[in-house]
Amino acid sequence: MFTDFEAAKAWIEHSKRFGDKLDLSRMQIAADMLDHPERTFKSVHVGGTNGKGSTANFIKNIMMEAGFKVGLYTSPYIVKFNERIMVNNQYIDNDDVITYANRLKTIWDDIYENHGDSVTFFELLTLMAFMYFRDQGVSYAIVEVGLGGTLDATNIIQPEVALITNISYDHMKQLGNTLESIALNKLGIVKQRSFLITSIENKALFPLFYEIVHKKDSRIKIIDFNQVQNQDVSVPTTFTYRGEHYEIGLVGHHQIKNACLAIEAIRTLRLKTKTSISEQNIKDGLLNTQWPGRFEIFDKRIILDGAHNIGAVRELIRTLDMVYPDKNIRCLFCMMHDKEHSRIISELDNIVEEFVFTEFPYPRCADAKILYAESNHQNKQYNDDAKEAFSNIRDTLKDDEILLVTGSLYFVSHIRQFLIR
């Protein structure tokens, strides 16, 4: 039995990342043993490569503005472990984590003894979220996909609407090396006779989306970004969509896309479930949304952004050009060794004034020297002490310079905690 939070957290975080069986059998068995908590609330399922967390937060805040009690399940965390699971902006507290961990340990033991398999890290978190949402009596849960879609632990829910933000290259080891294979996996969240809304823009993938949705006897809406006008990427970011003016609390052109997806999700829910959500609720929810580590600005010249794949980095570069067109960029960079770091470094080589590579104590962290060697920048260096490297740049920033911290959400979390302290 766990009696303190750190022990419960350690048990969850040190559980296996991937199970021996590549299916949802463990989740189905565990959910059955728990009397299916995922069936006790309505849900919205959010998949895609980038923008899942931002989109989920937009929807959560809109529904809160309308007076609903809303659960949110996202990953990874930036500030603290508990932020993966929240209800109405309140993180699950430490005592609840202990309680649910003890319940899940019993489930874990039973499945291991009777089925010869281990419930994984993400499955444990997902089950905890579903139990917590049930016990808190949420009306809706906004559930972010962890990896892919088809075999993701969250895919036991039957959502009111499924969302796919975009398709880009990431997690190729698990999802395949083509956009088609990645898309096919993410389309696994589409259920029979359901509704899919997506903000994909790659028209080469449209036939695949239509094919899968047709096979599932479902409906699809693809966001038409020709209806987005008057875009001003600053703080706040503003735009017009389908004749309505919006302001959002998150910065960037890509956040406009995420906001449009959230708007259409709410409009679909409003029609499908006769939910009472006003246009003003939508506007207030979008404006009040904050999301740590996503083009998060400190002191007007320090930017933390967890971009960790090629699609996210290109959007980051585009946003930097819009918000800081006349500033020189000094970049502090760290990435996980299993990501496409050479390709991303090549993109950033072209836009930064100084490139500093670093690392921090995390099992998947790439060696700073390896990252340094992959850069062709004329003004590059490495420092294996991330906090020291950050302080060195911050303390020498000139008026015409900004500090960009990027490459990984885990890394951004590490620096953010140091920065706030």
CATH-derived topology of the largest domain:
UDP-N-acetylmuramoyl-L-alanine:D-glutamate ligase
CATH class of the largest domain: Alpha Beta
Give the averaged pLDDT, no decimals: 93
Mass-distribution shape? globular
Biggest sheet strand order reads: 4-3-2-5-1-6-7-8
Q: State the share of residues found in helices, binned by percent.
A: 40-55%
Q: Compute the number of structural domains.
A: 2
Looking at the overall shape, the CATH architecture of the largest domain is: 3-Layer(aba) Sandwich
Got a strand count? 17
Q: What would you report as the Rg, rounded to the nearest angstrom?
A: 21 Å
Q: Structural class given helices, strands, pairing?
A: alpha/beta
Main traits of this protein?
421 residues, alpha/beta, UDP-N-acetylmuramoyl-L-alanine:D-glutamate ligase, Protein-Tyrosine Phosphatase, Chain A, 2 domains, 8-stranded mixed β-sheet, 6-stranded mixed β-sheet
